[in-house]
Amino acid sequence: MAWLFGVSLDPFAATVHIINTETRNRDAATTGHLVRDACQRLRRLQIRPAYLKVDSTLRGEVPAALHAVQAAAAGSRIWLAPSFPDQGRIVVDGELVVHGQPQCNVRALFEQDNIVVFDAATDRDLFDIASRALECRPRPLLAGSAGLARQYASLLAQQDRRPTALPEPATGPAVLLAGTIHQATLRQLSQWRYPRFSLIEPLDAIVSSIRQGADTLVEYDWSPAQTKALEAFCRLLPSLRPRALMLTGGDTASLVCLLLEAVGIRLADEILPGVPWGRLMGGASDNLVVVTKSGGFGPPDALETIRQSLPRL
Q: Edge-to-edge, what's the strand order for the sheet holding 264-272?
């Protein structure tokens, strides 16, 4: 899955706009088309493409995405750094290593005249890459994981100090929707100590738990029957007024946002590395706190850490 980040040229607009191209499971031709379309959408808004977020294990048609954004950015030089050290994914001597296991030679696969591959084994390495990019003229287009995006965003934030209004703290229970079977998330779910339901169960039981004020886990398996139940649950969710929505699994997060008719997420910060929080934009759940977590990210106690952080958001 590729996310295209653009930096606004309008000082009164949001600093960064993000488009999810939904390309992880698409073929090369479709990936190229969707990324080019995203670039054109940004350009029409007078937003300069600045960052192509790719999977840190290089899943999906990454070459097609790189070539599409490069063509749309008039041949801009691309700096590629897929490392995400906090998740055990680094590049050493051009080799992508995931939790100590070599995967592929990124430099051999991607490096060419206008694409440069960077080694990075620590957050400091990624910070240095982002710092150098901001100093370059013309500025290269960065491509990489959420790890490099975090460093780049922190540097951009130092350049943008506009005050933001703090919303009133929310009350009510948290709702966790889990739609991934990744082993990392399954380990996290095994530590959940609060009400737990599957969408095969009657919605009345789930709704009752939430209305009683309990932080509630709802598991979803992508079957047609459970997808129909999820649609019904999302229609009820605004009336339940939870203080926050926790979504684990990228496809799950995209689907839930679609069902809630949200047009986007106004990002705020990270709770854990690679686990951002923000507020829904649009729809009946507008301004609801939402936390998104990739299925493969986080330590075994990640969900409890997120849950305990919610009252402070």
A: 196-198, 216-219, 174-178, 244-248, 289-293, 275-281, 264-272
